[in-house]
Amino acid sequence: MKESKKCLEILKNLCGYIDNELTGKCCEEIEAHLRECPECRGELKKMESILSLCKKSRESLTKTEKKRLKENIFNSIEKE
Amino acid sequence: MRLIDKELIEKFKNQDKEAFSEIVEEYSERLYNIIYKMVLNRDDSLDILQNTFLKAFKAAPRFKGESSLYTYLVAIALNEARERFRKEKRFLFFDLDIIDEEKNIPDIYEEKEKEGVRERVNSALKKLPESFREVLVLKDVDGLSLKEISEIANLSEGGVKTRLYRARMLLKRMLNEGK
């Protein structure tokens, strides 16, 4: 990927852009650059995919584990 | 199930078991998810989760309500997880300079299957330094705000942002390597 100075600046702000933490002016600047730069659009897509993977990777307790957890907690509390 | 409200929190502070049971019911799943992503082991995670709730119950009268009850529980859970890392000397040393090497990364993020996603993400998370993994799990897996993370991690919001940026770059690299 060829990175211009502008691209590097945009990449540093991509996380904030994805997290909706940037001001209107800064967002507009990034969006204008993204329209013109396929490399940065690609980076944005990759980052969004990673965040989506993180959300999808959620772990969960089974019903038995949850039941046992509560039993263990309250047994321990009762003992003390 | 009612939401965690002021009345419930007051009861929690008085170590009311019924109220505490509701709190365990409400937060166990979400806390387990965070803990698992930190220690990446089911038995350890269950153990840490149990200890987290027990410690929270014991310390309940001292809960001041300066942070939300959830972030308070997360802070306890992370301390427990860190303690476990330390006891078992499972520190993850990593050369942070590699995150500046962001060249020639192929586009490999088309995988959509639910199965395998957890394994891929967990395998990449395992290679992240503990402090990076922590902010990434809190923000991108659990969905806490930067402000909440800054309270839990005892960092400024700017510090959280910087660490999160580096953690995401590193995770991206690890996901590529694991493909």
Strand content of chain A: under 5%
Give the topology string of chain A: H per helix, E per strand: HHHH
- What integer value in Å does the Rg of chain A equal? 22 Å
- The CATH H-level homologous superfamily of the largest domain in chain B: RNA polymerase sigma factor, region 2, helix turn helix motif
Pfam family, one (chain A): zf-HC2
Domain Putative zinc-finger (chain A): 7-41
Protein name (chain A): Putative zinc-finger domain-containing protein
Organism (chain A): candidate division WOR-3 bacterium
Characterization of the model:
The complex is a heterodimer of chains A (80) and B (179). Chain A is elongated and about 65 Å long. Chain A has one domain. Chain A has 80 residues and is mostly helical. Chain A has four helices and no strands. Chain B is mainly alpha-helical. Chain B folds into two domains: 6-87, Rna Polymerase Sigma Factor, Chain: A (Orthogonal Bundle), CATH 1.10.1740; 96-177, Arc Repressor Mutant, subunit A, CATH 1.10.10. Chain B has eight helices and no strands. Chain B has helices spanning 6-13, 17-39, 42-59, 69-87, 117-126, 130-142, 146-153, 157-177. In chain B, helix 7 (146-153) crosses helix 8 (157-177). The longest helix of chain B is centred in the first third of the chain and has 23 residues, at 17-39. In chain B, 37% of the residues are buried. Mean pLDDT of chain B is 84; it is low at 91-108. The chains are: A mainly alpha (80), B mainly alpha (179). Chains A and B meet through helix 1, helix 3 and helix 4 of A and helix 2, helix 3, helix 5, helix 6 and helix 8 of B. Chain A: Residues 7-41 form the Putative zinc-finger domain. Chain A: InterPro entries: Anti_sigma_zinc_sf (IPR041916), Znf_put (IPR027383). Chain A: This is Putative zinc-finger domain-containing protein.
